[in-house]
Write a structure and sequence with these properties.
Number of strands: 18
Radius of gyration: 21 Å
Structural class: alpha+beta
Strand order of the largest sheet: 1-2-3-7-4
Order of helices and strands: EEEHEEEEHHHEEHHEHEHEEEEEEEH
Number of helices: 9
CATH class: Alpha Beta
Helix content: 25-40%
Strand content: 15-25%
Distance between the termini: 26 Å
Amino acid sequence: MYCLGKKLRFSLFGKSHGPCVGGILEGIPAGFRLDEAAVAAAMARRRPTSGIGTDRVEADRVEFVQGLRHSVTDGTPLLMIIRNQNVRDDGRYLTFAATPRPGHADLPALLKFPGFDIRGGGQFSGRLTAPIVAAGAVAAQLLAEDNIRIAAFCRSIGPVADPAPRTFAEAQGSTAFASRACNTELDREMQDCIKAARADGDSTGGVVECLIEGLPIGFGGIWFESLDAELAAAVFAIPACKGVEFGKGFAITEMRGSESNDDYRMQDGRIVTESNNMGGIVGGMADGAPVVFRAAFKPTPSIAKPQDTVNLQTAENAELQVKGRHDPCIAPRAAAVVEAVTALVIADQAARGF
């Protein structure tokens, strides 16, 4: 199993073409009433949309096998499973055992793990983000009791970028759009970009932006337990994530300190910042402004265009054309996963007294 968190601890298990994927969430107090409909709604946000997502559609019904009785937690670890049902076992994945996909985990996994089950990408598949979203939906409900809220949206898809600053309400509203854009026009442009890549037998990447509201000043750890360090580590674990930046990110290097510093002011008896270049975190701790970060997701490596690879059986150069059901862009679905790992990290830091 693969684990995230220390006090609120999530353990992930399963693989793409196994009987199920699932997770164990430890540290949920007894007597907490869980809104299972809210968990189902989070799972729906991860589900692919026809035309811009994979043709593999799973029911993704979360079964709480242990730790929940009549929607109330009993204090034992919460065991969740999601059964894999729409699985194709026609042997096409076995091609990748000889000719691994460029940009995918195939090559290192095959050489590192003897007998690696390559079907669907095995344990490296995005399929394993399903139980992460389920666990994150539970953590989000815990945080809601302290008025801590999380919302993500697509800042860009391929070359189509959203240049406008976005409020928390606008980020929440992105759930109304298939691309997770913040308005109808951007949604159309982003969907067109994804569809054009798919029509070319190709794929495209995207950037997901996430906002966190309600963290008190000082929330977070320091050094290796800093809030941004733990958030970045969790987000980087999402398949296809290749970059994370907070606030202005790398662009802050082009500014002077007089420009980048977020000045403090008093407003209605509380401390506020005049800007948010730091993304709401300084010294690993929240500074009272909304936490803002972005995650970059690479184009999906499984594409229909011919690619150069090697044949591991003959030790010769080879060519590969991927067939099957794959997302032409992972970013719209990844928004729900970013929200989930963020909730898990924040809830764990809260449980640790940070």
